[in-house]
Design goal:
Elements (H helix, E strand, L loop, with lengths): L14 H19 L3 E2 L5 E3 H8 L11 E3 L5 E4 L4 H10 L6 E10 L11 E10 L5 H15 L6 E6 H11 L4 H8 L7 H10 L5 H8 L2 H8 L3 H15 L5 E3 L13 E6 L7 E5 L3 H4 L7 E6 L1 H10 L9 E5 L6 H13 L4 E3 L6 H10 L4 E5 L1 H6 L1 E6 L5 E5 L2 H8 L4
Parallel strand pairs: 1-5, 7-8, 12-13, 12-14
Antiparallel strand pairs: 2-4, 3-4, 5-6, 6-11, 7-9, 9-10, 10-11, 14-15, 15-16
Helix pairs in contact: 1-12, 5-10
């Protein structure tokens, strides 16, 4: 029997797992630095939760993992985290403003293709209870810090659902929802197809020309000094004041979810695919029976960021020491003793449990991402010393088994 992963899903092993862990750890630390609290919800939810949020009713079954349990209850695997957050906010008294982060796997029943998976990781942050744009500004800052921690420079495109509604009120009155769904496909299909889709719904195709110009002054001439225009101008001003020069207005940005009510945004790098996005959703909590609660959030596509970094050849080093003996005459109890002493002093390490020769151990250590190998021979044992080999530079030195000295060596920049 040949066992494989489920179609559209994948395993992460070795360097892949280390890279995934690095992304998650960096993001988690940054979220905590901004005061976001961890948040856990089940991967399985009642289907009704997504049926309501998706605004497409029963049709959403085709896009998600839907099933019935043994009690004939309709259930689904989560396809993102926002619906679960809204459910909790509607049923519990959260102290506002409430800031949370959630990192985990979500599931969609898309047709599997290159870099589009049915199970993928996402990292979300959300702020509940803040009406003004300071919440959006903080989220921009968090995004910047997350990407900077990975050596990446994000480019964020933003728009306002209020402004889009102003424009659609002129060119697609009464068909705003259909027009919004079509506009959200603009970066996925060609202009001709978009026009055909609009014509089929009897929507004025001049809409495309207006938003493609991406000129706020032109839009103002059409819609006047509307609430949407004010929101764009206010957000641009705040971004400038906070040196967020990677955030740019883009009139073509729609974002597919219909629950967005204000600023929406999308994150890209080097004109590549979207690596995340989000926006304001002030009405979602009340959709589930809770009170009207201002809310804004972003979902960072951890799996897409992983693929981007892996393509760049990102390798993860383990900041520790792999310890081995020169031959099988070196007692394992001595290696264990040294290993434990180093761990007590917060030096990550592991020992050769098998008894390989030195060249095999070095090869093995390199495959696991270690930059340093500690070698113990008979002479080293007698003198209470260890030979530390730097695998990147190729040099080695004999030092006392002193945790502080060893820590200094392995923490050096290579």
């Amino acid at each position: 029997m040949k066992l494989q992963t489920v179609r559209g899903m994948r395993d992460l092993v070795g360097q892949d797992a280390l890279l995934q862990e690095k992304i998650e750890t960096n993001f988690r630390n940054i979220f905590k630095n901004y005061g976001y609290l961890p948040f856990y919800t089940p991967a399985v939810e009642n289907f009704e939760l997504f049926k309501v949020k998706g605004a497409t009713g029963e049709a959403i079954k085709e896009e998600i993992y839907y099933f019935k349990d043994k009690g004939e209850r309709e259930l689904a695997l989560r396809f993102e985290f926002t619906a679960s957050l809204a459910r909790v906010a509607a049923t519990e008294q959260l102290k506002l403003p409430f800031k949370r982060y959630q990192i985990g796997e979500v599931y969609r029943y898309d047709r599997p293709q290159a870099k589009r998976y049915r199970a993928f990781y996402q990292a979300d942050i959300d702020i509940l209870g803040v009406k003004n744009l300071t919440a959006e500004i903080e989220i921009m800052q968090v995004i910047r810090d997350c990407f900077t921690s990975l050596g990446l420079k994000p480019k964020i495109k933003f728009n306002s659902r209020k402004l889009l509604n102003d424009i659609l009120g002129v060119y697609a009155k009464g068909k705003e929802i259909e027009a919004m769904r079509i506009l959200d496909k603009m970066d996925k299909v060609d202009k001709k197809t978009i026009k055909e889709m609009l014509e089929e719904k009897k929507i004025d195709t001049k809409l495309i020309e207006i938003i493609e110009k991406n000129n706020l002054q032109t839009i103002i001439q059409i819609v006047g000094q509307s609430l949407g225009v004010k929101e764009i101008l206010d957000f641009e001003k705040l971004c400038k004041e906070n040196n967020l020069n990677f955030v740019e207005f883009d009139a073509t940005l729609a974002r597919g979810f219909e629950y967005y009510t204000g600023i929406v945004f999308e994150i890209k790098i080097d004109n590549g695919p979207s690596l995340g996005g989000g926006g304001r959703f002030d009405k979602l909590v009340s959709t589930y029976g809770g009170q009207d609660t201002p809310a804004v959030g972003v979902g960072l596509g951890v799996s897409r960021i992983f693929d981007f970094l892996k393509e760049k050849g990102e390798k993860i080093s383990q900041n520790g020491l792999f310890i081995c003996g020169t031959n099988d005459k070196i007692p394992k109890k001595e290696l264990f003793k040294i290993s434990q002493e180093l761990r007590k002093n917060n030096i990550q390490n592991e020992i050769d449990l098998v008894g390989k020769n030195i060249s095999k151990n070095i090869e093995f250590a390199e495959s696991k991402g270690y930059n340093f190998v500690g070698i113990i021979g008979e002479n080293e044992l007698k003198e209470n010393k260890i030979t530390i080999k730097n695998l990147k530079k190729g040099n080695q030195e004999l030092v006392e088994i002193n945790p502080e000295k060893i820590k200094k060596i392995i923490n050096e920049k290579n």
